[in-house]
Design a protein that fits this description.
It is a single chain. The chain is an alpha+beta fold and 235 residues long. The chain contains six helices and twelve strands. It folds into two domains: 65 residues, no CATH class; 159 residues, no CATH class. A hairpin with a 2-residue loop joins strand 1 and strand 2. This is DUF4367 domain-containing protein. Keywords: Membrane, Transmembrane, Transmembrane helix.
Amino acid sequence: MTDEQLADELRALGRTAAVPPVADGLATAVLERIAEPPVRRTFAEVVRSRWRALLALLAVLLAGALIAPPVRAAVAEWLNIGGVQAQPVGTGPTSAPEPPVAAGELTLQQAADRAGFVPIVPKALGTPAKVDASKGMVAMSWQTADGVVRLEQFKAQLSPMYIKKYYRELEFVQVVNGYWFSTPHELVLDDEAGNEVRVRVAGPTLVWVYEGLTFRLEGLRDKTRATAIAVSAVR
């Protein structure tokens, strides 16, 4: 039996159905609606209807992403943040040493020549005390009242890639569209052969992406202070 034959039989059954009377005439209205011939929609009308429904669903999802930062933080648990990949683990280190001082004595121009891009210096920190660079990456460090502050910036598709193995929920930092790793965590490199090489334990770190570069700011335990430094780098 085809769909049209089934529809015709259902309409015929509706015409003969015995329905007890109701006060608001609902049954009559339903039976009249069943008796009406079906509305035949063209293929183009069906496609347009489904397309409108899809657009409405996408609008709802987009609105949810814009107004619900915790959702975006949850997504970051299994997506890359530029050149940094965040991997949740069950447990992690309870403490971390200061970040290492950048090993080089390069000028900013020398670092740019070696890295292949012009590094950004946060206005809030000023001229770095130490600068090191390799192809696609620049590391800077400052000696502050809080201790050593280290900023790494590298092309978003860095290979090998950094992996942060963290064990607490990430916190989305909307002002720089980044993420705050509030606890000590394993810092690992995924090399070109796909092998994970442990680098060190890193302390609280702010990670964000700006103009095709990934930034790691480490050495500050206060998220507000780290965020202010990040803002001074991108504005």
